[in-house]
């Protein structure tokens, strides 16, 4: 028995609707014992758009807080002492800008930069693979990532400038070995870019390595996940020592925070998610050698929509009970020298090393992203995971086994989830207009010109960005400069063109039905899979596209971040028979309504529209009322059955039109 260890930092990932509402939520959570902030930004903020941009429609304040300028940041963090707080910001493509706003606010308050503690995720490479909030091409994105690292190690030395994020890789389907290898490959790509940039002297490089942190995922197979974390510790130490020559152990330490798996949360019998969240947390706290430094847990009802403050409190109390009521923190690592654990860890390390070698042969993580190798591997792994669930080989209680249930008093009735008021977007747009009208326009123009010159000349953009923040430049204006200098980018989708040749059972039956209907139509049924708005979580859309092709459809899928106008134009030009829209950000009602209205205006009223996403029952009813032919939510896990429905919808609609 030893002296009791300090508990990990306890966070909840939070932010929604407005800066003022989010500030109130943060203060409530801190009063309940939360020990750090974890800020969720809305999609326009994450992708560098202002609230009044066409792509921002329906997305403002939905999955996080909108931050358009330093005034919003003042409101967001009002009354929270920046010099004492440890603040994590889940921000990637616009990480330099949000950090600039944070530092500008600290300067304004007289808080020394050297006292600031926190993390910017700033791992844009995984955005091309999973979450989709990238803006610029990979090389330009890595330049911005490097700028943040080079700036913070000297100016904000307690800050973690990059949080290599494997969390979203697992959400996109990664196995433990893929999560290990892809995250470590990205970590190497980041450090290689820092070395190649010349912005950090060789003598200081070890300090930079010591500030790189990771953000991981922990799934329900908690023994395997715990072994994965022990493998992460060993492999990162090995890479830092052998690849980068880091001699001091403290700089080689694998420092990580975690949010446990949201992918495994179920809409069916959602109260079961409490047990899942607890077991998943154990994977990252039981082993002292591989214990997380910060833990944030999803709420039990996040598969239904935004959690309420009470739901977040429940997750926080779970952490506190494990940390303070149990004896977990009183012992050394209980898994050391366990032959079963050691064997599993070594097997994971061997598989990860082999995958890392393949990526290195391709030229590293950036090259493996550009060629779609990494994305394709994730899509394939996710396809295999879904196939196991559909076949019952992977049991999900309440979904594919033990589905009989009583109505849950926790998730029925009004107010079961938090909803964002529809007026939030209008208010944010009006406030943004007023902000632009009342600031010093000449100072803004001069600051933007300085920023653009730095970007074009390849200089570090952090101080010019802080200068922009101080004079009132907006998120969209900063993003416009970056797009103008570096251009925009569309990542490979990872959805191959080849359909399965081994179709049997239900897939074969649906394929035969597709052939019959196609023969009657005179050509193959064509389906457009669209991602309107800024929601970059493309896993569902990718799997629908893959399964549709497996079932014999001709599929049009152009990836994420399309306007309703672009989707309708594609439907018209491609002559599709059905449009499938995937939206997980909560913006389904305004975006689908926009698509439907445009389709009618373009003479496509007979082309059915189906929608998938996290959609509450009342919203599903509203969508059907405006003519949506089918609504599918996470409980509809059988993709082949969805395909069968869509064939029936197309058949019925085309016969009606005839």
From TrEMBL:
Its cofactor is adenosylcob(III)alamin. The keyword Magnesium does not apply. PROSITE patterns: B12_BINDING. GO terms for molecular function: cobalamin binding; metal ion binding; methylmalonyl-CoA mutase activity. Residues 524-653 form the B12-binding domain. Keywords: Cobalamin, Cobalt, Isomerase, Metal-binding. Belongs to the methylmalonyl-CoA mutase family. PANTHER family: COENZYME B12-DEPENDENT MUTASE, METHYLMALONYL-COA MUTASE, MITOCHONDRIAL-RELATED. This is Protein meaA.
């Amino acid at each position: 028995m030893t002296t009791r260890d300090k508990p990990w930092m306890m966070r909840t990932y939070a932010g929604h609707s407005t800066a003022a509402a989010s500030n109130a939520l943060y203060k409530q959570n801190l009063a309940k014992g939360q020990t750090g902030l974890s800020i969720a930004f809305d999609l326009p903020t994450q992708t560098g758009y202002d609230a009044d941009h066409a792509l921002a429609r329906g997305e403002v304040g939905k999955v996080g807080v909108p931050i358009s300028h330093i005034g919003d940041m003042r409101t967001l963090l009002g009354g929270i002492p920046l010099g004492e707080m440890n603040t994590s910001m889940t921000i990637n493509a616009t990480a330099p800008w949000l950090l600039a706003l944070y530092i500008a606010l600290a300067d304004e308050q007289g808080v020394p930069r050297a006292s600031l503690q926190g993390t910017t995720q700033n791992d844009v490479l995984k955005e091309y693979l999973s979450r989709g909030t990238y803006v610029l091409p990979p090389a330009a994105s890595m330049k911005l990532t490097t700028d943040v690292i080079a700036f913070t190690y000297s100016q904000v030395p307690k800050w973690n400038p990059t949080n290599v994020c494997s969390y979203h890789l697992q959400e996109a389907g990664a196995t433990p070995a893929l999560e290990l290898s892809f995250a470590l490959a990205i970590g190497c790509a980041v450090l290689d870019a820092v070395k190649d940039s010349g912005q950090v002297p060789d003598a200081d490089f070890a300090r930079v390595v010591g500030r790189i942190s990771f953000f991981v995922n922990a799934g329900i197979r908690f023994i395997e996940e715990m072994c994965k974390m022990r493998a992460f510790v060993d492999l990162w130490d090995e890479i830092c020592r052998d690849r980068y020559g880091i001699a001091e152990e403290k700089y080689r330490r694998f420092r990580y925070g975690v949010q446990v798996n949201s992918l495994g949360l179920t809409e069916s019998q959602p109260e079961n998610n409490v047990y899942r969240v607890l077991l998943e947390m154990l994977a990252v706290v039981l082993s002292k050698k591989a214990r997380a430094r910060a833990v944030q847990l999803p709420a039990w009802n996040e598969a239904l929509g935004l959690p309420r403050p009470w739901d977040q409190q429940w997750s926080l109390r779970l952490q506190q009970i494990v940390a303070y009521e149990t004896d977990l923190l009183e012992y050394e690592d209980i898994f050391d020298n366990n032959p079963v654990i050691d064997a599993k860890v070594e097997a994971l390390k061997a598989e990860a090393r082999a995958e890392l070698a393949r990526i290195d042969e391709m030229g590293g993580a950036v090259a493996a992203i550009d060629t779609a190798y990494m994305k394709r591997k994730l899509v394939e792994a996710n396809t295999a995971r879904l196939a196991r669930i559909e076949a019952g080989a992977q049991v999900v209680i309440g979904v594919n086994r033990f589905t009989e249930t009583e109505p849950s008093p926790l998730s029925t009735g009004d107010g079961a989830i938090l909803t964002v008021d529809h007026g939030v977007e209008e208010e944010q747009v009006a406030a943004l207009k007023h902000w632009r009208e009342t600031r010093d326009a000449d100072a803004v123009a001069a600051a933007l010109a300085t920023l653009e010159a730095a970007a074009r000349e390849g200089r570090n953009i952090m101080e010019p960005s802080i200068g922009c923040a101080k004079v009132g430049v907006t998120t969209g204006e900063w993003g416009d400069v970056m797009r103008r200098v570096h251009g925009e980018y569309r990542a490979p989708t990872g959805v191959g063109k080849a359909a399965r040749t081994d179709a049997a059972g239900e897939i074969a039956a649906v394929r035969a039905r597709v052939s019959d209907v196609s023969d009657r139509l005179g050509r193959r049924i064509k389906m457009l899979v669209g991602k309107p708005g800024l929601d970059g979580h493309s896993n569902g859309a990718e799997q629908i596209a893959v399964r549709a092709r497996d079932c014999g459809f001709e599929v049009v899928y152009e990836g994420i971040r399309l306007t309703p106008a672009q989707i309708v134009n594609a439907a018209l030009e491609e002559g599709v028979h059905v449009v499938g829209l995937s939206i997980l950000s909560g913006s389904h009602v305004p975006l689908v309504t926009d698509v439907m209205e445009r389709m009618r205006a373009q003479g496509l009223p007979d082309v059915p529209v189906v929608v998938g996403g996290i959609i509450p029952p009342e919203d599903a009813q509203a969508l059907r009322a405006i003519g949506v032919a089918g609504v599918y939510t996470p409980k509809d896990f059988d993709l082949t059955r969805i395909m069968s429905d869509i064939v029936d919808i197309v058949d019925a609609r085309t016969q009606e039109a005839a």
